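Working notes for the structural subgroup meeting. M.R. asked for a predicted model of this chain before we commit to crystallization trials. I am recording the input and output together here so anyone reviewing the notebook later can reproduce the run.

Input as submitted:
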Amino acid sequence: MNTSLGAPQAYRGLITNSANKHGVPAGLVDAVIKAESSYNPRARSGVGAAGLMQLMPGTAAGLGVSNPYDPAQNIDGGAKYLKGQIARYGGDYQLALAAYNWGPGNVNKAIKKYGNSWSAIQAHAPKETQKYVNKVMKNWRG
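Returned structure, recorded in token form:
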């Protein structure tokens, strides 16, 4: 996997520190940020996801993120959430990324119906999620 970070210098330390704190690859956190917000800390989606890692309000609150537009809080919360998804799916980064994008409830339903791997559920995931997982993995691999 690509270990270099493409993030602007201002975020590299935050990414590395949060990734190390939560035990996730820094390059993966960087790739998620690139895909989610293109490094724009003020990014906001149409459904209300906010900040660099595009945290939904309820998710952000549950992670202790009081200001999703604060890069340090957002990256730390996003790395923690990503770690939770990686753990939930037994270290399967693609399933974890699908859950990050599509939601763990949807991923769990697909797993029950089609099988416990990204290759088993991929064709049944929304096109947006398929593209997202591929994009993040490509960005991470460099």
